[in-house]
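Q: Two folds, back to back.
A: First:
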Amino acid sequence: MRWEDFRSSDNVEDRRGEGGGGGFPGGGAGGLGIGAIVILCIIGWVTGINPAVLIGGAEQMMGGGAPRQEQVDPQTQARRGTKPADDAGRFAAAILGNTEDVWKEILPNQTGKQYRPTGMVLYTGGTRSGCGSAKAAMGPFYCPLDKKVYLDTTFFKEMETKFGVKGDFAYAYVIAHEVGHHIQGELGILGKVQSRQQAAGQVESNKLSVRVELMADCLAGVWAKNSNDRFNSLEPGDIEEAMQAASAIGDDKLQKQSQGYAVPDSFTHGSSAQRMRWFMTGYKSGQTRSCDTFRAAAN
């Protein structure tokens, strides 16, 4: 992917160096132990609840009262405002900048909605989000309460070592997927789904979560198509990298790896085949309207 040609986003907050370490191929924070964090992440994966919400709630129960307002000294605040200079940070800022340039054009044209960019927080180990504590073990996520994407850049290396996935477009797909959740929030979809989940049983709630995640995959495909049309951004093999990533993080594959079998009723993100199919649906059409997973058959 020709990401070095992209504009770097001004909406990136670099908190790395305040926690652990980072890396780009080619402990936690707060009062919870790593064991509790991992358990809450697994619960979030199974139930479809954002792990940040679970961890934040657990920390509130341990500490009592509302979440503490983060106190940032002026020197730290000034450092956070500078653009990343390392490869991982520059890459994340460039991909976010490209999503901004693409979505500010196609969202109004395709939906009649103006695009208000999401922010991105880069961190290492752990930090605070509007949804509670962010932990590296949770992987990248979008917090609808503060409208920001949270990314520990060590996840890029984890994709290679844990999932066997590498390539800059595979990493870009992950960021674009989280931006897809922001698009869903801008369109009012996330709030409606959350209301339906509160009135639904666990199995039905999981199915709704799957459709949300598959829509985000599809929106990532829409971004990729329009980015390539406008900026000639893709290189040979890029789509194959995205397919490899989508396949590696399907619920069925992850469950089989961890426990030897898959339980479809517990899926919250979709199977490998579903995730690949919906990314390609968005990529082939380039149209947001093709991503209505709630009316289409998701299998």
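A: Second:
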Amino acid sequence: MAETSTHGTGTVEALSLVPKAEGRQSMKDFKSDQEVRWCPGCGDYAILAAVQGFMPELGLAKENIVFVSGIGCSSRFPYYMNTYGMHSIHGRAPAIATGLASSRRDLSVWVVTGDGDALSIGGNHLIHALRRNVNLKILLFNNRIYGLTKGQYSPTSEVGKITKSTPMGSLDAPFNPVSLAIGAEASFVARTVDSDRKHLTEVLRHAAAHQGTALIEIYQNCNIFNDNAFEVLKDRQQAEEAVIRLEHGKPIRFGSELAKGVVRDRLTGDLKVVAVTPDNEDQVLVHDAHSPSPTTAFALSRLADPDTLHHTPIGVFRAVDRPVYDTQMTDQLDQAIEQHGKGDLGALLAGGDTWTVVG
């Protein structure tokens, strides 16, 4: 089946190559026979259940879905999915997944990683997968701590964080994963929370439908080494005043009776939160996740204070169409074969660009 997507450079055809599943599937079909081994109360359980519950919606054969992970608590994920998977090496999951997605376009490829795995040793692999727009989905579990290695500060830990490796408080300014992804030209960027299954599933749904790289930051609680890090976003009363739910085409309002809104400061151009009144109601921004410019999406990502998390947007920040790397690579290979025939590896290795070491 051919699907047509429109990009800024014109219309391109993206082939839907993934075989459909035979018969109706359920959450149970995607549960493996492996014992789930995370600390009791870990947010990873909620994410796993949400993903397993969502997978049947794809309508794909389990054999054509792959989960690739790196190193960390979150990276045990492939063991618990009754699909193909690979528990790879530290930080390299996006690179391995890029090779797989590019060479096997009949597969639906998902990456599971954590804030330490993705943003420290894996930082370069992550940003290059995003800028290339490879057709894969990246689930970035962010608990703002190193859990597997027992509680050191991570690239998303707040300044002043007291941990085993920063007994006097962290001096590092934390990464904002959403800001980082938008800055790397990601075509789909979203944020959600582990305990909000309805919202998490909705974001997964949007990501799965996206052609290209989709990054989802998932705020995830580590109840052993960083408990209640996101409590302000989970406690019902606090969350009503702190969580900004982004919905494409709708005014960005939140709080009790939607009394707060996001507007653009006319002097600085920055975004700010205001109390909505009849005088400024028409200034409240309408969320446009499909805007060709990443400017407003980036500004939205900066609203959340890393210390208090008040005014934290969740939902799809950006979802835009642009050429997909693996589709373009396949087109180049097809063109080369059409013009020059199939390549000869032996001739390439022994070609005119070789040289001999003498002595």
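Q: And?
A: The radius of gyration is 22 Å.
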